Amino acid sequence: MRTAESWNDYRIIDASCGEKLESWGGRLLVRPDPQIIWKTEHKTDLWEKADAVYHRSSRGGGEWEFKRKLPESWKIGYKDLKFIIRPTGFKHTGLFPEQAVNWDYMSQKIRAAGRPIKVLNLFAYTGGATLACAAAGAQVSHIDASKGMVQWARDNAAASGLSDRPVRWLTDDCEKFVRREIRRENRYDAIVMDPPSYGRGPGGEVWKLEDNIYDLVKLCAGALSDDPLFFLLNSYTTGLSHSVMAYILSEILTPLFGGNVTADEIGIPVEKSGMCLPCGSTAIWSRG
User: Fold this and answer.
1) Domains along the chain with CATH numbers
2) Whole-prediction pTM value?
3) How does pLDDT run across 128-143, given as a tens digit for each residue?
């Protein structure tokens, strides 16, 4: 497992009985996590001092119980990047901290490339990968279907002092955008994607990751340059293992460009247990 161990402003303090106790810049949140199936006793009394707890509803979704008054939003930092944190109605806060291991990987690859790099970030959410790539010197196209998330990403870029970087902020359907880019012969040296497990398009089209991911990766291969740097695929879908994603990347990209594929779970250390909480999987094709 690749673990995000370089955080100062974010911590998982404890995890048990379907919940994790987190510190987001010193503010304590309790959120559900389906991976936490163990039923150990709490290892700290900080559970009782949580500022907010997210309760799932049996009808789907859920709501926050604010035990103490919190600001509507606040900022946390990862290295030179700044992110605006805001508890949402779907338990999320606007950031997936485990992705820091991928931010570091992409940043290192871009800085070491020794040439201009164009990155396509699909399903780009609030822009963690976009900021990391832009800070490393890449030109980035940031694509997400949610106008609100694209604005949140732009706000994160401003907070990080990156508003002047060459980033295209686009609200669009990712698959349709890639098809247009291929027709326009716009090519990218790196592609990042973190597609949802399930969703519906504007015309009622059903998106199911396991059914659609192969075709999407194959389509995106047509948007790569002649000398691509990397292709990073991330998933939170438990039914799509890192080994399956690695197989897909190997079958599609290796015959075209050579290179190699690595894949693993990504996670975050849990302070009180000394173990790591798995938080998804990533497969990466790279030139070398």
Assistant:
1) 2-85 (2.60.40.1180), 97-286 (3.40.50.150)
2) 0.95
3) 999 999 999 999 999 9
